[in-house]
Design goal:
about 375 residues; alpha/beta; Rossmann fold; Phosphatase 2c, domain 1; 2 domains; five-stranded parallel sheet; five-stranded antiparallel sheet
């Protein structure tokens, strides 16, 4: 396969010989008789491989290597070294040289080394291109997923609703939602799709869309308890029957809130128990009332009720909060969340910001192992 080669040597005979050698193999060959000339050509053109003498007057081959790699970090460089300069060759390899040969070199061996270097570079370039394309696709996916989350949260009079969403990767399987129903009530949801990455993100969009669609169709004007139960059951049955072979499911907390009374009808499908902190400091947990959503059809989900009084705050989280790990492997756990809730910041957004900061401090720079998602509701 053709490639573009720059040969650098201050001996004219070697330049002529190497130009002829590589030209016969179908390569496009350019030459430089000094390090200074080589640097100018590297900065002004695109080469696949540089073949350079290590020891030259003025700018040495080592400097050509450094300048070349500064111009193109992926540049392949083969060094040719005089006898006794093996230490310098090793140093060149540490600086990023691809290969080296001692003088006097065997033309057949040099040709084979350059061919192998070119092939390796082509494979690496293809991998880098694929990685860039994948990164671009993931960025598009991240933006699409972001668009699936509510652009703005409901603001019923006398209430605050805030959310936080931090995927562990470019895209994640967690989701949250909060939206007004036509009858003045508010639907809220927090979910965690099993698995990570692109597959989980696709199902995150599906779960969120199904819940919102069913809530808009069956939520308004229907008593909250049967409505909440029906919305979760319908979502469960669709996922299980239509996508059962994918073995994807989600833990979901779904609730319908009446801002006028503070009444909350909720279903917990295998989700991390939301925490209801009363104004007086008492803590209640909204425990699971059914299995994870989407695992099997025709599952039973119980809907329960609670009432939020003035000063009460409800915080629903995913296990990316409680299962965040320190460098030593220690879990953040629920106690950290309870400690922050005890301080009861005046605003829900500030409350969630404190929890996120505490989790990140606990992780102390380690890579997050799971998505981190929260939704808080407070009655003023």
């Amino acid at each position: 396969m053709p490639g573009r080669i720059l040969v650098v040597d201050d001996e004219k005979a070697i330049l002529v010989a190497l130009r002829g050698l590589f030209t016969k193999e179908g390569y496009e060959v350019d030459t430089a008789s000094s390090g200074e000339e080589a640097v100018k050509k590297i900065e002004g053109g695109r080469f696949h491989v540089i073949v350079t003498d290590l020891s030259m007057d003025g700018i040495s081959g080592m400097q050509v290597l450094e300048r070349g790699r500064a111009t193109d970090p992926d540049l392949a460089v083969v060094m040719i070294t005089a006898h006794g300069s093996e230490k310098a060759a090793v140093q060149a390899m540490k600086l990023g040289a691809t290969d080296y040969l001692p003088k006097p070199f065997n033309a057949v061996v040099l040709k084979a080394r350059v061919t192998a270097t070119l092939e390796k570079k082509r494979l690496e370039d293809a991998e880098r291109h694929h990685a860039r394309e994948l990164e671009r696709e993931l960025e598009i996916g991240r933006q699409i997923q972001k668009d699936f989350l509510p652009e703005a949260l409901p603001r019923p009079e006398g209430w605050e609703i805030a959310a936080a969403f931090h995927p562990a990767r470019q895209v994640g399987g967690d989701f949250y939602d909060a939206f007004d129903l036509e009858d003045g009530r508010v639907a809220i949801a927090v979910g965690d799709v099993c698995d990570k990455g692109v597959g989980a993100a696709l199902f995150m969009a599906l779960f969120r869309s199904l819940i919102r669609s069913h809530a808009e169709l069956h939520g308004s004007g229907t008593p909250a308890v049967p409505a909440a139960r029906s919305i979760v059951a319908l979502t469960n049955d669709y996922i299980a029957r239509t996508h059962g072979r994918s073995n994807m499911f989600a833990t979901i907390f779904f609730a319908i809130l009446d801002p006028r009374t503070g009444d909350l009808a909720w279903v917990n499908g295998g989700h991390e128990p939301p925490i209801l902190r009363r104004a007086g400091g008492a803590v209640e947990r909204l425990m699971p009332t059914g299995p994870a959503v989407g695992a099997m059809p025709d599952m039973e989900f119980e809907a329960r009720t609670a009432r939020l009084a003035p000063g009460d705050v409800l915080v629903a989280i995913t296990d990316g909060v409680t299962e965040a790990r320190s460098a030593a492997g220690k879990l953040y756990g629920e106690n950290g969340v309870l400690g922050i809730l005890e301080a009861a910041p005046a605003r829900t957004a500030a409350l969630l910001e404190r929890i996120v900061a505490a989790v990140r401090a606990h992780e102390a720079g380690t890579e997050p192992v799971d998505d981190l998602t929260m939704l808080a509701v407070r009655r003023s």
